Amino acid sequence: MKTSDFFYDLPQELIAQTPLDRRDGSRLMTLDKATGAVGHAHFYDLPRYLRPGDCLVLNDSRVLPARLIGRREPGGGACEILLLTDRGDKTWECLVRPGRKLRQGATVVFGDGQLTAQIAQVLPDGNRLVKFDYDGIFLEVLERLGKMPLPPYIKTELQDRERYQTVYSREIGSAAAPTAGLHFTKDLLTQLQNMGVKLCYVTLHVGLGTFRPVGEEELEDHQMHQEFCTVPPETAAAVNAAKHSGNRVVCVGTTSCRTVESWAGEDGLLRAGSGWTGIYIYPGYRFKVLDALITNFHLPESTLIMLVSALAGRENVLAAYREAVRERYRFFSFGDAMLII
């Protein structure tokens, strides 16, 4: 298949710039993966579509305030470092701007000198290995100096950084939010539990590769980015019990989907474990565990729209997206949601 097979026209004004006041007040499009039939609701209506015994899988990763604004030394020129992956020994793989000024050996100072960094190595893909120096605990320094790493299509400053975190986030390490989960409130989760839906958690630390369009003409030629994920034993047990009982596994977000599919065997059993995944899901993929998916509306020609097309069919998905544009749904990270079932 061609990457261009996953293009659709999206008016710029439909790209949501801010979250709604009410998390679960977003719209919810339902898509029947077998027939392509579309329905319209709100996210607080979700209990109407789930059943007792369903297993709801949520990604509990928490976003790092990973965007650091500093100045180069000597000279004082402004620069930006975005943390991607912890490589240990106070060293992170990062994106930097301006790249031409931040070559190996360059030094950057943040705040009043509470944090300094040196470019240790320029990697082949242009990323940098950056060695940091600070007193105390790095995460506490980041809480003081860092900003939320919002996607490049969001131009509005976020007033409350917790709105770019899910209400159940706990394992810090993502460079971007698992945005399908942003619609949930604690009350809604309690309501689902009380009706007999089993909540279970995985962790996948989201990388910025999530936002990169596929550059290759043939989608099979794309090299998927790697992300670290974990399936706890209690989640594997809950998912396997649901499958054994004939109940559905409903993943919240493509990150939860990629995690369970990475650790599922050909026999359909989910194994506990942790490690790096580069799983690439596009049409033709056979899902081993997932039955239904809660997700947002994704960028054209992205690996995420390819994943949902693998589940519901490319033509069904693109028809649903055209309907969403006609109905003025809000798109991307702070936008509305879709339930593929």
Structural class: alpha/beta
**CATH topology-level fold name of the largest domain:** QueA-like
CATH class of the largest domain: Alpha Beta
The shape is globular
Given as residue ranges, the uncertain stretches (5+ residues, pLDDT < 50) are: none
- The CATH architecture name of the largest domain reads 3-Layer(aba) Sandwich
- β-strand percent reads 25-35%
The N- and C-terminal alpha carbons lie at a distance of: 24 Å
As laid out across the biggest beta sheet, the strand order is: 2-1-17-16-14-3-12-13-15
- The radius of gyration is 20 Å
Specify the biggest β-sheet: 9 strands, mixed
What key attributes describe this structure?
18% helix; alpha/beta; QueA-like; 2 domains; 28% strand; six-stranded antiparallel β-barrel; 341 residues
Notes on the protein architecture:
The strands form 3 sheets. The protein has a 9-stranded mixed beta sheet with strand order 2-1-17-16-14-3-12-13-15. The model has no long low-confidence stretch (mean pLDDT 95). A hairpin with a 2-residue loop joins β6 and β7. Helix content is 18%, strand content 28%. It has 341 residues and is an alpha/beta fold. The protein has 2 domains: 3-63 and 160-340, QueA-like (3-Layer(aba) Sandwich), CATH 3.40.1780; 67-145, Thrombin, subunit H (Beta Barrel). The chain is built from 6 helices and 17 strands.
